[in-house]
Specification:
The protein is mostly helical. It has one domain (2-144): P-loop containing nucleotide triphosphate hydrolases (Rossmann fold, 3-Layer(aba) Sandwich), CATH 3.40.50.300. It has seven helices and four strands. The protein has helices spanning 2-5, 19-26, 33-52, 66-73, 97-109, 120-126, 144-155; strands at 9-12, 57-60, 91-94, 136-139. Strands 1-2 form a two-stranded parallel sheet. Pathway: Carbohydrate acid metabolism; D-gluconate degradation. This is Gluconokinase. Its EC number is 2.7.1.12.
Length: 156
Amino acid sequence: MLAKAINCSFIDADDYHSYANKEKMKNGIPLTDIDRLPWLETLRDTLRMSQVNGQTIILGCSALKRSYRDILRSADPNCESGSPGCAVKFVLLDVGAEVLAARLDKRAANGNHFMPAKLLQSQLNLLQIDDSEGVLKVDATLDPQIIVTNIQDLIL
């Protein structure tokens, strides 16, 4: 919805996971930093190409750790972590674990996701957000259109 509202492309980072990573998650095995690194580098390169081509992209991604976000930020060669001038911005869709689990179960039941909800806690355990980093937070329990408007107000 956000990509449509600001007339740009949307990329779901999950589409960029390797077959091996998807199989691990499907089988309830959490990914390691080593598993994630090629995925993050591919996403970074995709962001870099969009920037070179003057395109804006909305990337839906579970960049849980600051180190993961720093890899994605490096798509902008002029970016310093947390810098307001960085072309790569992060918005945390802030919501409780119960709501996330319900949404993940619904996506999996509809055949739209490969990760079982039982892996969610392992991801939440990795989540690191430091206020100095400049990650914007939006209440993701609101109506989707309100979420989109709130994000637009923060980033535009």
